[in-house]
């Protein structure tokens, strides 16, 4: 009964039918899971072995971080720089976990296993559900579908890359960045998000010729705090100006 009640802040009276939640979760899981093929091709083309490529998908399982890691390797970056860039991209999942832990309310013994599936897609599907039952179904179905498909297509992509030889000759070295951009673009909904993305691109591309491979990605991460700081200063300035105008008006009335 508790699982069917509306979650705080949703304003919903009842959740969606289980079949609708499963359908939505499968749609996301299948659509994104097939992108694992591009990762497998990109990883193999970057010089990683079949075992290393599959281990990344099995153990890391966060597409953006995986693409960032193999992309840095492909550009000649050292392992520490590549790992640092992937780590900073993956940190966002920890913040997702803070919110999902409240919504899922899973038993303590299950949480370490569920943490492996805390990624962009499972979070998006789970947060779209108004009841705890819907959250759990959406999270589980999305996570299971995506994990199985991502790892299967990663294996197929890596095997395919080995079979065709030089991936750059086929233009498949651009598959990873293309998929990454395709996943990222729909998430940029607000002006602040678009500003952060644009500044990060400028920093990354501008510093690419002068910094070692992988380092521009780390510097580009500074775009987010800078934009938020600038936004806070501007908002503070607006409030101060408004207060000054109100104070002046009150003084004039006296």
Can you put this structure into words, describing what you see?
The termini are far apart. By secondary structure, this protein is mainly alpha-helical. The longest helix is centred in the middle third of the chain and has 33 residues, at 132-164. The protein contains 13 helices and no strands. Mean pLDDT is 80; it is low at 9-13. Helix 6 packs parallel to helix 8 (120-127). It has helices at 18-33, 36-45, 50-60, 63-74, 79-90, 92-104, 111-115, 120-127, 132-164, 175-184, 191-207, 215-220, 223-253. 72% of the residues lie in helices and 0% in strands.
List the SSEs and their pairings.
Layout: H1 18-33, H2 36-45, H3 50-60, H4 63-74, H5 79-90, H6 92-104, H7 111-115, H8 120-127, H9 132-164, H10 175-184, H11 191-207, H12 215-220, H13 223-253
Helix pairs in contact: 1-9, 2-3, 2-4, 2-9, 3-9, 4-5, 6-8, 8-9, 11-13
Short description:
The protein is built from 13 helices and no strands. By secondary structure, the protein is mainly alpha-helical.
Major β-sheet profile: none
Name the structural class: mainly alpha
Please report the number of helical segments.
13
State the helical fraction: over 70%
**Overall pLDDT confidence:** 80
Radius of gyration: 22 Å
User: What's the total count of β strands?
Assistant: 0
* Range of strand content: under 5%
Low-confidence sequence ranges: 9-13
Order of helices and strands: HHHHHHHHHHHHH
What is the CA–CA distance across the termini? 62 Å
Rough outline: globular
